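User: Here's a structure from my thesis project, written as structure tokens. My advisor, Dr. K., wants to see whether a designed sequence matches the one we expressed. Can you design one independently, without my sequence as a hint?
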């Protein structure tokens, strides 16, 4: 049987063991004023009693409980366990009140009298922290009204007092607002108006809308921390933004001059604007933003954001940054993907995407500052958001030429410039597709590895270390190993050995004439654009289709951009078409030759697709459209011309068939690969050996290269004409259709 508490001394002893709430005098006074109002207007509940009890010091609470428990019947006394915590004590007192053991009127009157006594008792004491000072600073910074300041104070008190927040959590939205109105002394309509979505408190994310669920509204944790004294020694404006200066001149970027002129005109005007820079990560969007702002004679202020990726907190910092922005400052919101792609909210969070879109649209429409937004993705940016941007620029992946320019920018004032040659940067730019951040990271790592010694390392050593650093970085980012798109041409390559239905030199001459005419149009600034030159190289494997593409690259001195199915086909809907557009765009920007190797992989006949909306159909449609509008040189290679879409064939200016070698081609390549390379061999073949060579059917240039590569590791004694010819004949056998059961199941 539980022991009863019968005396004031026992009550004091039991209450003395309870943890006491620690409030500053001003906060305590504010909470007590709220309690007095609630006691006057609310029904008595155990939560209201718990809140009221939490505002008493131990001695005052002892007096209160002793007075409330003046009873004569033993069964009305409290057990010792009832004093284990205030919540339980409040519940027991409430139960006695509801059963008529304690008068409700007396309870309300006694509580109000004791709270008033405490107000006078603690009035004038020095506070541990004066929360009102940072609150007024915040209100002044955001140009808040007295009503808005009072509402913030109320929600700050909710954060500080768990018993008070327990009262609010059990209320409906209307009663929640009514309670806020009672505590703040404001009309209900004023509180309701200031907590609407478009009102400043919610639009600036000072107070969060909790998606229409209890407790409905909550003070931003950053605001709570600031009012509580966190960071009050730092000027508020500095907590929202940081100044960054440009590192590169505007001419370093491949942004069209017209686009830069438009942006500088917008930034220099007196009107607010929103500019969107979007595209592949690491393509220089942030650096360009800093450079264009600097070129306007202004300051670039990047919005601060800390460890939290919370959208509400980021909006708050953006609003804070715009509030403190002068006429010479431009706000830059970097990494704004989650802020702008509000349609993603349905999938990645519990937030209502329509609410997020509403917030964003309101901000874009009402913001009076000039803001540059930077994002990688725009796929889930609603149309209603997109149309609110004044201007936008898409940043495409770097071309080889642009990537080489980035290398040179990073090396401009770098001590490593002495050992990293232009040839090395050109090769790095061609072989690796890393972005600007990856280049900077590799150079910084190289400096760390080499140390601070005055002696510069060997160029070969630098080349090897950089290659390894860049390779590993790209493999980490891309998630796949780096492979050369094409093996380079060997010294044995001979154009005259090819067996084509069109003379090889005629193809070369036609391409040179095409480029000459194109250059003439550019030099004379004529509006006549002409059309592109599309070539289809088709025929059996190993006949030199890809190799001729490489030869044209060297002969025409144009960059060769090679794309295969693994580069273009993507498992996600729409990404294949996007990759195709980017491939043509890169070739257009670079003025290079675009070669689609094994084009039958993505130029499938549309009549054979499972249904009209399949990815094969949309990919083929995209390539056909790009071919129509492409003004450069396109080469498509395939072993299966029968698999190509029929509509694609009429789009090729040259349809060149590659056949197996003629007798003359076999003699020519045998001479280039073996007679000129192996000094110990007899200079000529016997008539019988020559006849055996010429009679090998279906022999291709690829077969010569395969045998030559294999024989590089054979001893000189075993290298004879007969053994080489035999190896060529055996190589052809592997290409022939073989009868019987093959390998597999």
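Assistant: Designed independently from the structure alone:
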């Amino acid at each position: 049987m539980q022991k009863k508490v019968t005396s004031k001394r026992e009550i004091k002893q039991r209450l003395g063991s309870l943890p006491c709430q620690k409030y500053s005098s001003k906060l305590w006074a504010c909470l007590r004023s709220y309690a007095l109002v609630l006691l006057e207007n609310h029904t008595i509940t155990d939560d209201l009693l718990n809140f009221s009890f939490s505002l008493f010091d131990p001695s005052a609470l002892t007096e209160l409980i002793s007075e409330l428990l003046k009873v004569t019947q033993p069964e009305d006394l409290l057990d010792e366990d009832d004093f284990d915590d205030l919540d339980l004590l409040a519940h027991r007192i409430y139960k006695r009140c509801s059963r008529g053991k304690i008068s409700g009127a007396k309870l309300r009157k006694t509580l109000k009298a004791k709270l008033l006594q405490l107000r006078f008792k603690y009035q004038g004491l020095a506070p541990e922290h004066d929360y009102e000072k940072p609150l007024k600073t915040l209100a002044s910074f955001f140009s808040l009204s007295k009503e808005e300041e009072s509402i913030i104070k109320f929600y700050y008190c909710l954060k500080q007092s768990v018993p008070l927040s327990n009262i609010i959590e059990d209320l409906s939205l209307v009663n929640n607002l009514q309670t806020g109105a009672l505590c703040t002394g404001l009309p209900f309509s004023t509180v309701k108006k200031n907590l609407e979505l478009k009102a400043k408190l919610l639009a600036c994310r000072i107070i969060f809308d909790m998606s229409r669920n209890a407790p409905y509204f909550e003070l931003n944790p950053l605001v709570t921390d600031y009012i509580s004294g966190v960071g009050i020694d730092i000027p508020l404006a500095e907590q929202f933004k940081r100044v960054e200066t440009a590192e590169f001149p505007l001419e370093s970027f491949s942004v069209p001059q017209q686009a830069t002129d438009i942006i500088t005109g917008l930034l220099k005007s007196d009107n607010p604007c929103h500019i969107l820079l979007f595209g592949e990560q690491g393509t220089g969007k942030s650096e360009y933003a800093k450079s264009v702002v600097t070129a306007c004679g202004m300051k670039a202020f990047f919005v601060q954001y800390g460890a939290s990726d919370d959208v509400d907190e980021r909006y708050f910092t953006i609003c804070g940054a715009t509030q403190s922005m002068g006429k010479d400052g431009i706000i830059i919101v970097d990494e704004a993907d989650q802020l702008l792609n509000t349609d993603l909210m349905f999938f990645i969070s519990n937030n209502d995407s329509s609410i997020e879109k509403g917030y964003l649209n309101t901000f874009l429409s009402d913001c009076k500052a000039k803001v540059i937004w930077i994002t990688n993705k725009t796929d889930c940016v609603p149309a209603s958001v997109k149309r609110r941007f004044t201007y936008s620029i898409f940043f495409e992946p770097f071309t080889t030429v642009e990537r080489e320019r980035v290398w040179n920018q990073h090396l401009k004032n770098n001590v490593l410039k002495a050992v990293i040659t232009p040839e090395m940067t050109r090769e790095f730019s061609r072989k690796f597709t890393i972005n600007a951040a990856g280049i900077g990271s590799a150079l910084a790592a190289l400096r760390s590895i080499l140390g601070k010694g005055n002696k510069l390392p060997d160029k070969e050593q630098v080349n090897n270390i950089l290659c390894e650093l860049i390779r590993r970085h790209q493999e980490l980012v891309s998630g796949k190993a780096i492979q050369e798109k094409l093996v380079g041409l060997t010294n044995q390559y001979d154009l005259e050995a090819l067996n084509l239905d069109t003379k090889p030199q005629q193809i070369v001459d036609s391409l040179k004439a095409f480029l000459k005419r194109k250059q003439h149009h550019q030099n004379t600034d004529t509006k006549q654009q002409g059309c592109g030159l599309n070539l289809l190289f088709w025929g059996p494997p190993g006949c030199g289709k890809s190799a001729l593409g490489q030869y044209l690259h060297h002969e025409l001195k144009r960059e060769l951009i090679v794309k295969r199915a693994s580069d273009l086909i993507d498992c996600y809907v729409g990404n294949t078409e996007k990759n195709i557009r980017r491939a043509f765009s890169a070739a257009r920007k670079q003025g290079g030759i675009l070669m689609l190797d094994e084009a039958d992989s993505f130029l499938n006949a549309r009549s054979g697709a499972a249904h009209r909306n399949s990815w094969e159909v949309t990919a083929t449609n995209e390539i056909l459209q790009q071919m129509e509008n492409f003004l450069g040189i396109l080469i498509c290679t395939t072993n299966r011309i029968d698999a190509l879409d029929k509509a694609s064939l009429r789009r090729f200016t040259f349809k060149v068939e590659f056949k197996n070698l003629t007798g003359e081609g076999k003699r020519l390549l045998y001479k280039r690969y073996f007679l000129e390379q192996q000094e110990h061999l007899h200079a000529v073949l016997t008539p019988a050996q020559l006849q055996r060579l010429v009679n090998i059917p279906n022999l291709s240039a690829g077969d010569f290269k395969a045998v030559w590569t294999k024989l590089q590791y054979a001893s000189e004694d075993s290298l004879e004409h007969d053994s080489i010819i035999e190896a060529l004949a055996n190589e052809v056998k592997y290409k022939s259709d073989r009868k019987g059961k093959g390998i597999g199941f």
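When you compare it with your expressed construct, this may help: The radius of gyration is 39 Å.
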